[in-house]
Amino acid sequence: MTSDSESSYLAKTNGMKIEEIVQTLLPELQYVGKNLDAIYHDRPLEIKSCQMVCRRSDRVKGERTGRFWFRGDQDHVLKEKDGLYALVVHENGDCRFFILAEARQLLKDFSGAMTVSWRTIARRVL
């Protein structure tokens, strides 16, 4: 089990790696870094990433599928403005799955926050 400070450091490091990956895949991307991450071809874009597999001590195998964490306020804005999600699944910072998804087609409306397994998302977009 990692401490909160180790977990925060790992999340920040992975986040920077993922931003680099997305910038490489989408060179026209313009970071704005406010409520939403970027603009891509005049459309708002939010980058979401998760680990391919996460450790879980309460599971027989000790792991579970990684999950994307979505915020309702961001999702609402993306849907209103015809926005996109850049979804990245990584393993130790290496990209294993990437897709651009239309926000209005990805999730039902919700408030607060929601986590969704990357496998569930992959089934929706592929």
| Helix segment tally | 4
Q: Could you say which structural class the secondary elements and strand pairing correspond to? A: alpha+beta
Which sheet architecture does the biggest sheet show?
Answer: 5 strands, mixed
Order of helices and strands: HEEEEEEHEEHEH
DSSP, total strands:
9
Gyration radius from CA atoms, angstroms: 15 Å
Task: Explain what you see.
By secondary structure, the chain is an alpha+beta fold. Helix content is 34%, strand content 37%. It contains four helices and nine strands. A five-stranded mixed beta sheet has the order 1-2-3-7-8. A hairpin with a 2-residue loop joins strand 7 and strand 8. It is globular and about 45 Å long.
Short note summarizing the structure:
This protein is α+β, with helices and mostly antiparallel strands and 126 residues long.
Q: In terms of topology, how is this protein built?
A:
Blueprint: H1 4-25, E1 30-31, E2 38-40, E3 43-51, E4 53-55, E5 63-65, E6 67-71, H2 72-80, E7 84-91, E8 94-102, H3 103-106, E9 113-117, H4 118-125
Parallel strand pairs: 3-7
Antiparallel strand pairs: 1-2, 2-3, 4-5, 6-9, 7-8
